[in-house]
Amino acid sequence: MQTLIIGCGDTGVRVAARAVAAGDTVTGVVRSDASAARVRAVGAHARVLDLDNDPLDDLPQVDRLFYFAPPPREGTADTRMAGVLDALADSMPQRAVYISTSGVYGDCGGAWVDENRRVNAESERAKRRVDAETRMLAYCGHACILRAPGIYGPNRLPIQRVLDGTPILDDADGGWSNRIHIDDLAGIAWLAGTRAMPHSVYNACDGNPTGLGVYYDTLAHMLGAAPPPRISWTQAQARFSAMRLSFLRESRRLTNQRLLADTDYVFSFADFRDGLAASLRAEPPLD
């Protein structure tokens, strides 16, 4: 099997390792030599490409396509994906997997959200993701869209913020926090890329949303630090970036019942507390 991973970063390398172990010939497309070294370290081939500016006409024909590259920073269309899929127009992969975002649902007022809910992207960032989902489903009849919330894991924790005592939005003014450990996201992506899935869209989350404060307080306790101070929405507007506020403005509780019903996937970290503890054990010590 020929496997191509576009945007072979932290999640992609984990998928590449699984594909290599399965006997696939794997190519990971990255933007830097450092990322290429990580891809080669798991036994895969690496291609350093600027997806926006470099020629893409010699991308390999593939049996499995994993697309993990983010959209461009502006606009409402994922022109980056459009170029890649155009270059792969003659390739007919048996499976294609795209990691999207739960942001395509928009603000749901804290309601439970399954995959039957219509998308309601409110930010340009989320609209680009909706565009990408549409393109991927049109490209491959067996494509699977994974809508992921906040991804955490080793080197993906707000450790310095907690140690510095950086304030967070009070849960009374904020919404729900949904998450997925990066090892589970890679495991779900690999599963979706290796079998026929009954549905084309899945929430790739641990299914256990909490208030954001619970997550930060748990991390602080594990670090032996004080819980982060809370601030109001009015204070947050004066202090946080527009992008961070756009995330905090939306509230939803993601369910993963479709994934559990359709597959035999067993989460490594269904409880984020276990995921935090494992991530901290894998983190290099701070200077």
Descriptive account of the structure:
The protein has 287 residues and is an alpha/beta fold. It is 38% helix and 18% strand. Strand 4 (64-67), helix 3 and strand 5 form a beta-alpha-beta unit. Helix 7 (212-223) packs across helix 11 (272-282).
Strand residue percentage: 15-25%
Oligomer: single chain
Biggest β-sheet description: 7 strands, parallel
Distance N to C terminus: 43 Å
- Spans of at least 5 consecutive residues whose pLDDT stays below 50 are none
- Continuous helix count: 11
Query: Strands of the biggest beta sheet: in what spatial order?
Result: 3-2-1-4-5-7-12
From the helix content, strand content and strand pairing, which structural class follows? alpha/beta
Shape type = globular
Rg (CA only)? 19 Å
Mean pLDDT, to the nearest integer, reads: 95
Share of helix among residues?
A: 25-40%
Summarize the topology.
Elements: E1 2-6, H1 10-21, E2 25-30, H2 33-41, E3 45-48, E4 64-67, H3 79-87, E5 95-101, E6 112-113, H4 124-139, E7 143-148, E8 150-152, H5 159-164, E9 168-169, E10 176-177, E11 179-181, H6 182-194, E12 201-203, E13 210-211, H7 212-223, E14 230-231, H8 233-239, H9 242-248, E15 253-254, H10 257-262, H11 272-282
Parallel strand pairs: 1-2, 1-4, 2-3, 4-5, 5-7, 6-15, 7-12, 8-11, 9-14
Antiparallel strand pairs: 10-13
